[in-house]
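Q: What structure does this chain adopt?
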Amino acid sequence: MTVSSKEFLKGAYNATRLLGDKAITSDAVMVIDGFESLQLLIKQFPWPELSTVGEIEVPMPMGAASWQPGQLKINQQGAISIMETVGGQVHDFSERVAASGGRFQATVYEGTPERFYRGLKLVDAFVQLDNPDRDFESRQQVLLVTGTIFFHYFGDKVPGNIPV
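A:
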């Protein structure tokens, strides 16, 4: 027999609704300083979160142990996918960044730069892009350049202009 009575479900529904609308994965863009037009081509990127690097086990008498959090993890990384154009926008971006030292600054917005809930500042980012595959049998797929973005996040935010 189920324990989810209509009263229980209504209470869970109401409590969930009080927390607000859920964030939608697609409602975000990454804007790279100096390459603002790429925001329309960056398909996937990591959303930074401050958390600890993990646990530290603390020994206690008689073989017992407890946990305490490690330092904050400010060095972060994740997958990035950028749609290439016939004009070679991604190729030009990677060459220009490499020629200028390899690092860049960026902001990720929950929304767009013009209308957003919050923006998060990425510091000293760089990308390791994989060689994309070209396939003459693939007539219905956009050329994606994928790889890993490495960055630092210190919790710096840009206040949004949409009320939550």
